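DM from R.C. (forwarded with permission)

"hey, sorry to bug you on a friday — could you get me a structure for this? deadline for the figure draft is monday and I only need the backbone to look sensible"
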Amino acid sequence: MILIRHNMPRWLIFLLDMLFVLFSIFLAYMLRFNFHVPESETRGWVLVFTIILITRSLSFIIFKTYAGIIRFTSTEDAVRIFLVIMGGSVLFSGGNVVFYYFVNAKYLIPFSIIIIEFMTVVLLMVTFRVVVKIAYLELMNPAGSKNKVIIFGAGEAGLITKRALDRDLGVRYKVIAFIDEDKNKIGKKLEGVDINGLDRLSELLAANEIDNMIISVQKLKPEKKKVIVEACLPYRTKVFTVPPVSSWINGELSYNQIKKIRIEDLLEREEIRLDDDRIRNELEGKIIMVTGASGSIGSELVRQMLNFNPQKIILIDQAESAMFDLEVELTSKYDFKNFEIAIADICNEVRMDHAFALFKPQIVYHAAAYKHVPMMENNPSEALFTNIKGTRIVADLSVKYGIEKFIMISTDKAVNPTNVMGASKRIAEIYVQALNQKGKTHFITTRFGNVLGSNGSAVTLFSKQIEAGGPVTVTHPDVIRYFMTIPEACRLVLEAGMMGKGGDIYLFDMGKPIKIVDLAKKMIQLSGLEIDKDIKIKFTGLRPGEKLYEELLNDAENTLPTYHPQIMIGKVRQYNLESVSKEIESLISLFDKQDNIAIVKKMKEIVPEFKSKNSEFEKLDT
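My reply, with the result:
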């Protein structure tokens, strides 16, 4: 027992291997002569035994077959033993031929003995190592205490996943079944484990108290992924996914790379098809500026731009720590060095003018903005300063320096705004749209809803609350929102930016709206927890400026289709640049007074559809 728990001494392994050889020679003679070895054969035993034992011992020492840690025996160890024993047997056969033709016209070792000894030694040495490994695994991880696992996918990835679990001795796992949709595999076994059809998943979950489901299939359709997860949730079975092969370390999957499935994985849609050639024609060899570059949208835009070979990317943000993280990611993970970092506030006109003059960008993606609704409701002057004045500065500089395209990232909260943040973004939209009348710069606005995993999003908040043990706070049981994944939103921004001719607002197909309370429930269940038992859901009431549902279009607007099924053009009201500029200048002048009521009142004059909700500014609507 002690030897199993600890590394067995090498000398002991070598001694046991030699005993196996000695036994194998004796057994070979017994089997060859039906347990009645003639005296003519036994007279040569001393020479035969000596030759075989010396040859085997030297080969074991040279190739160190005894040096492996037995409890970690692998297929490679078994192959090495087979080749070493085979090499010795080939030497015996060669020696036999030499002895026959040049010494005594007879074989020193009968070929049948060589074959039987070879097979027996291989069998004994490999079996011994496997038995020790199994005994160790059972001692350290009794079968009754192992986590039961089902693997979806009985192909190569599924097999590699099972072996990764078997190899990881720090975790107790036992694969109960494989699930696969290939009818040619169903009913068969893979390394002794049954392969079942997807129709048997619920039955297996109910009968075996499965702890974990691991989805090994690469690029599984979102609809199928949802079916698997929905089947697992009632049984509190945790669902994991295997990462893409490209992220495996040295082509080998490790257990630590297998991650819990995220809510983003369930809400994603079929991968958006981009017109890569047209985007490449737009971005390749260009100097591109991204404001808000370290934010969730800005940083993802940068990552996706790398695929289109820009000449240089200018990263603008005032968050130094986040910018440092992005710099490290670009240089170490993507090996991309054609970028410049400018720590700058977009509201600082002198600093921004210097950046434009120094770097001479050709395309600007404007993602810098304050986006948190309650925060801006309590700080209207900051929403005014950053979202409106900051946008005006960057947009005006784009005209001054002859930028080809200016793409602004907006929000669905700019439609029929009920809060200061949404109204500030709508005013920025109006200015950018009107500015398209001036100069050669094409101004394009992209408008979409909430992005999963962005800073301050419901998903990020819920994740932290679940990790802390709850409660999960939802403002209202009827609140619904549209959601997109960050990569999906950024792909559409690149596509819309490429197709835009100026002055248009592009709207994205956000899919079906989702009730926030349902989102919270599913995230709790995905964590393997039970609602109202392990984690409670607490309703806190609508926050200042928050509404029950979001819209992507003003009531008076309509849309036109584009060649891309998920991108539409919003036909919106056109504004005169001169009158818009005067109104916005008047609004910005109110910043120094820090009078929130005056600021919001002016916003409502510029955007008449701005009607406050759950806010102190509702009194201005009467």
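R.C.: lifesaver. The chain has a mean pLDDT of 84.
me: no worries. The first strand starts at residue 147 and ends at 152.
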